[in-house]
Design a protein that fits this description.
86 residues, two-stranded antiparallel ribbon, 1 helix, elongated, binds zinc ion
């Protein structure tokens, strides 16, 4: 019974790591472009140089700075407002 539990936990951990990795790689590219005007911006910038659109916001759960367009906080993994789930 314990073995089954350990296997289940390993699979769950693996899945979580893979899912996080995929989220990070796909979302990162989106996050580097202003959602409002499409201007590419550099790492660390919080305002779009073209339209002054805010590029980052605070996670309501853990207060970590996160990019607009992210459906999940990469820090606490909570679902963010605006994300859609069926
Ligand atoms: Zn912009
Ligand atoms: Zn968070």
């Amino acid at each position: 019974m314990i073995v089954i539990f350990l296997v289940a936990v390993s699979i769950l951990l693996y899945y979580l790591l893979v899912a996080r990795g995929e989220l990070t790689s796909t979302e990162e590219d989106v996050a580097k472009t202003c959602l409002n005007c499409g201007t590419r911006f550099q790492e660390g910038e919080t305002l779009c140089r073209t339209c002054k659109e805010s590029l980052k916001k605070q996670c309501p759960y853990c207060s970590q700075m996160i990019n607009f367009g992210w459906n999940y906080c990469p820090n606490c993994e909570n679902k963010l407002v605006g994300g859609q789930e069926s």
